[in-house]
Amino acid sequence: MKPIRILQLNANTQNSTIHALLNTATDEDSADIVLITEPWWGNIGGDKQGPVSEAAASWTPILPVSAVPAGKRPRAMAYARKRSDYTITLRSDLANDLDLQILEIAQDPRPPTIIANIYNDDRKQC
Q1: Cα separation of 118 and 53, whole Å?
Q2: pLDDT truncated to tens, each residue of the chain (126 aa)?
Q3: Taking the C-alpha atoms of 61, 69, 20 and 8 in order, what is their torsion angle to the nearest 10 degrees?
Q4: How many CB atoms are closer than 10 A to CB 79?
């Protein structure tokens, strides 16, 4: 069973940073899951807003919420390498926030693992 490798990066909202990461992390010894804080978010065709996706043929973007409200952008998201030996489930029952993403990773026969991807905005009041 191949281990699952996780990488975390603050992209500082830079499109080029995410493109470079997804295009260079292509071999089997690189990350399988990339947790991004401050991802790039912008027009990806016409008026549609979204993450870097066209350069990510071997990656699946995972947003922290099922639908990002107009005029908003996620500050935490992930990309998962397309592999058949594990699954990732967004746990929106535990968190439904643009700054927090909880993912459950399952790879038989191991028990599921839960990871959190958090953007910490020290200006945001709790």
Answers
A1: 21
A2: 889 999 999 999 998 888 888 887 666 678 999 999 999 988 766 666 777 665 567 889 999 999 999 889 999 999 999 889 999 999 999 999 999 999 999 999 999 999 999 999 877 665
A3: -70
A4: 25
Least Cα distance to 98 among 68, 61, 62 occurs for 68
Q: Is 121 exposed, middle or buried (0-12, 13-18, 19+ CB in 10 A)?
A: exposed
For the chain, the C-alpha Rg in angstroms (whole number) is 14
Contact yes or no for 43/77 (Cβ under 8 A): no
User: What ranges do the domains of the chain cover?
Assistant: 6-118
Residue 92 · residue 65 · CB < 8 Å: yes
Output the furthest CA–CA distance in the chain (Å, rounded): 44
Contact at 8 Å (CB) between 11 and 17?
yes
